[in-house]
Structure formats: C-alpha cells, structure tokens
Design brief:
Elements lengths: L1 H18 L6 H47 L9 H18 L3 E8 L2 H8 L1 H18 L6 E6 L2 E7 L3 H18 L14 E8 L8 H17 L5 E5 L1
Parallel strand pairs: 4-5
Antiparallel strand pairs: 1-3, 1-4, 2-3
Length: about 240
C-alpha cells in the first residue's frame, strides 16, 4: 500500500538522521531514538490491524454472499425459492408489459406426494424433491426461462416471450423429464412412477389492464383442473 511505503520512508529517514549524528547532545539523540522505536512499534501494530481488517472484510464478503444465496435459493433442492421467483416474475412482468410480448407461467405439482412420503419416508421424499427440481431445471434451456420451488411439492416455471403453443411444449418437456427419472411410486394410484401435473397460463399481450395475479390465478386454476382430471397431465389457458 502507498500509505505503508510512505511510513517506511519516514522511518528510513529518521534512522539516517541518527547515523549522520545531527544531534548536538546524547540526550537529544536518545530521545529521538526512543520516539523512532515507538513509531516503528505503532506502525507494526497498524500493519497487523490492517491485515486483520482485510481478513475480516473477506470473511464478511463471503458471509454476505452466503446470506444472499440463502435468501434466494431453496436449501433442500438448490433451485431458486419463492422469494426469488416473485422477484423474477415482477421484473419480467414489467418488461413484457412494456414490450407487449407473450408471457407464460406454469404451475407444477408432484402427484400424490403425501402418499410418497407415507410409503417411503420423508428422507426419500426430500431426495425425490431434489431429483424432480433438477429435472425441471434441465428441461428449460433458454437463459430467461426460470424454474423455482413454490412451496412443498409445488414448483413454478416463468416463460418470458413464450406464447401458448410454446408454453404447452415446455410443459410437455417438463413431464417427460420427470418421467425419465423413473422414480418408483408404489403409493400412486395413477402409475408406477413419480409424475407431475401442470397448469399452463399464457397472456398473449400483457398490458396495464392486466394484473400479475391474473396469470398466477389462471395457472393455478389450470393446475387444479389437471389434478381433478386424473393427474399426470397438463391443462392450459390463454388469457
């Protein structure tokens, strides 16, 4: 650091003055020598404190990054949590209102997840959630597409600039990816493996007349219809 270089230079000059014997008496030289030793000691302590401060700052930065991750990501599945979903949804919603482009949302629910936990235990249930979460994340490949854990066994997928046909295609891919996991589900009444139900809602042209809750409510209603219709399927609507 420049500050330390300056301090080193002051000490060096002080020592040079002592060697040049500029003091007329030994008392003055002794006093100056004592001051110089004291200054060197204080300088050493300052360097030590600065070093500790740097270490603490690095630790603080690391902790801050961890706190940000904890606040935005689901600790069980590792994917974004509901809070992060709401932030992304609001940002994308405002952007698409300005642009007037299609906007889609998919609500996803693991079929008969309670029965899965009852059959295999909560530890296996957690493992199932992790696998499904990763499969859903892999199924969306555009940078702006976004999958998050909504709560419990429910997930959500934000699809900016995606029309109804494209959203249904993504929804089907989500179903296929979960099916490929082939996670046994002896407690399911609709098949041998874990499956999902989906509600797909699309707003063709978001405007100021539409509220963000409209598309959430529509996707949730479609999810309810898919579950009532037998599960392991998707239901869709265009607003």
């Amino acid at each position: 650091m420049d500050l330390f270089k300056q301090e080193y230079e002051i000490i060096r000059k002080g020592e040079a003055l002592l060697e040049e014997e500029i003091f007329s008496d030994e008392v003055g030289a002794k006093h100056y020598r004592a001051l110089l030793r004291h200054y060197r000691k204080l300088f050493s302590q300052l360097r030590h404190l600065v070093k500790i401060s740097d270490i603490q700052q690095n630790d603080l930065n690391h902790l801050n990054k961890q706190l940000v991750r904890l606040s935005q990501f689901d600790p069980l599945t590792g994917i974004p949590n509901r809070r992060r979903f709401e932030e992304e949804l609001n940002r994308e919603w405002r952007r698409h209102q300005r642009l007037g482009t299609p906007f889609s949302l998919i609500m996803i629910d693991i079929d008969h997840f309670k029965q899965y936990n009852d059959t295999y235990g909560h530890s296996a249930g957690d493992d199932c959630l992790r696998k499904v979460a990763q499969a859903l994340s892999v199924a969306v490949n555009r940078p702006a597409d976004f999958v998050a854990r909504y709560g419990g066994e429910e997930f959500v997928c934000v699809l900016p600039q995606t029309d109804g046909q494209g959203a249904v295609a993504v929804g089907q891919r989500l179903c296929d990816m979960v099916s490929l996991l082939a996670i046994p589900h002896a407690g399911s009444s609709i098949g041998k493996y874990v499956s999902i139900s989906l509600g797909v809602a699309t707003l063709a042209c978001p405007t100021a007349d539409h509220a963000i809750q409209d598309i959430i409510t529509a996707a949730d209603a479609c999810l309810y219809n898919a579950k009532e219709s037998g599960r392991n399927r998707l239901d869709s609507v265009s607003l």
